[in-house]
Amino acid sequence: MTTTDYLPIVPLGLETIEIEGFGSVFCRMAQAHNVSVYTLAMHLRHWWRQRHPNDDRAKVNVINATNPMLCGYGPNVEAYVSIVREATGSETIARTTLLALKNELDPNGHSAVRWNRAWCPACLDEAYRDGRQFYDRLAWAIPAIQRCAIHKISLSTNCPTCHAPQLHYHHLGAMDHCCKCKNSLRSAPDTWVAAPQVPLYERECLDIVMKISMGELWIAPEAYRVFITTFAEYLSPLGKKISRFAYKAPRRPQLAREGRPPRLDTLLRRCAAFGVNPTDVLSDPEGTAKSACLLEFARLDLPSSAKPRRAAELINLARSRLENELNEAGLDTVPSLRQIAREVGVSTGFLNFHFPDLIKKYSALRKANSRKSIQRSRKQALNFLLAGPIFQYPSSEFSSQDRLVEATVEHTGIGVHAARLAVKAALKERFGWQSYEKYRKRRRRDPTAKWPPCD
After folding, report:
1. Residues 85 and 165 in one domain
2. How many domains does the chain have?
3. Per the domain annotation, does 404 fall within a domain?
4. Each residue's pLDDT tens digit in the chain (455 positions)?
């Protein structure tokens, strides 16, 4: 045993799914030295600076870390794991975090761990009754873990006394006491919530934690990218087409995102959709891709035969119908492409595939016809207003512009928005553009201003 400057602290629950979290180890270390968590953190910073004056990894205060359990794989966690490993001589301290996933997942560690503590109330009560040390498990820090895998009880996140979320540990490192009111976190058994159903991604997360706890999680270089690329290469063109509808999550990433490592929740979601274990993806991406491809084809019902071909007469009939509509371009109404397809007995995709040039011309014709129809409607509404109603405004019959709009919609059948534009144009026609703009400016200053403006 080597001599160290601090008491050697060995993580609890090694080589099991109940491996201790790093934040819990840090609290037990503070209790072993009979100091507060803050005092221990400050002492470690000074100790590290004296031994490594050119290394600034100790500049971050562990008390101000965003995650109280310090179980992720970000730079702060990596720095404190290095400091505590050298200070205590514990070579297994890294197993209390998710640092083994650092090179494969998102380097920022988004959504990898919780923002507050979570614990099993049954484990806490059991440790208290047996006189054992209660500690936080690494698995409880993962958001996908919503219950205790042993007691099948939902995890607690708030103090039973003051109901405050545990955003950090007790200042003296007491893991069974509230960080705010300092009372015990023990709760009555009748308040525990049973969770018999297995939550989504629980098995995958526990497999990762077990591998980390045993120190057997080996990750291949660029494992996730290799897995996705290999899976896409093994699929035939027909398989690629069908697989898009078989599941949504495992679609091949776009070229712009193909080189980015995934987040932990993304890795779990994609592996569950593929039906593979994330530890297999990380350790053997190519072999797992082959297995996922075989599973994908096994659960798909491939079509027994190709779709029947359309008769040549039907194609000629559709072409003739489109050409006739283009030749009769002077008509006021042009039927929609969906209406033509329904009358011929085909789909719009059939028309787009066989007659792309005709469809392009027909779409331009539809747009031009629509613009002409809008112009005719606006002109009709303007003529209606200039024929009398605009000169009767304001009056008892047309006391407001809304009454003018209602009358225009009722007599011409156009929409409300088009009618408002027509009323605006009619007012400018009657009183002049300058008078109307002057009224608009006055309305901005005084919303009670009336029309026509009084100079």
Report:
1. yes
2. 3
3. yes
4. 345 788 888 899 998 999 999 989 999 999 999 999 888 888 888 888 888 888 877 666 655 554 567 888 887 888 888 888 988 888 899 999 999 888 888 877 777 888 889 999 999 999 999 999 999 999 999 999 999 999 999 999 999 999 999 988 898 989 999 989 999 999 999 999 999 888 888 988 999 999 999 988 888 888 888 888 888 777 655 445 444 444 344 444 444 344 578 888 888 888 888 888 899 999 888 888 888 877 766 665 555 555 556 677 888 888 888 888 888 766 567 788 888 888 888 888 888 888 888 888 888 888 888 888 888 888 888 888 888 888 777 777 887 778 888 888 888 888 888 888 888 888 777 766 556 666 666 666 666 655 555 44
**Same domain for 288 and 424:** no
Residue 258 lies in a domain: yes
Single pTM value for the model: 0.61
Structure tokens at 326: 């283009």
Q: Among 170, 193, 217, where does a domain finish?
A: 217
Dig out the tokens for 59 from the structure: 């500049």
Which of 266, 298, 330 is a domain's end point? 298
CA distances from 285 to 231, 275, 276, 281 (A): 9, 14, 10, 5
| Sole residue written with tokens 């495992």 | 250
Distance CA 333, CA 370 (A): 9
147 bridge partner residues: 154
- 62, 8: one domain: yes
CA distance 263 to 285: 17
Within this chain, do residues 266 and 385 fall inside the same structural domain, yes or no? no
C-alpha 141/C-alpha 69 separation (Å) is 7
Radius of gyration of the chain (CA): 36
Q: Which long-range contacts (CB under 8 A, 24 or more apart) does 90-94 make?
A: 90/8, 90/9, 90/10, 90/11, 92/10, 92/11, 92/14, 92/215, 93/9, 93/11, 93/22, 93/25
Residue 339 lies in a domain: no
Q: Which domain holds residue 177?
A: 1-217
Residues 282 and 183 in one domain: no
CA atoms within 13 A on the CB side of 283: 12
Q: Do residues 104 and 179 share a domain?
A: yes
Shared-domain flag, residues 49 and 172: yes
Backbone φ and ψ for 300, nearest 5 degrees, come out as -100, 140
What are 219's two structure tokens?
């990750």
Indicate if 155 and 257 belong to the same structural domain.
Answer: no
Is 363 a member of any domain?
no
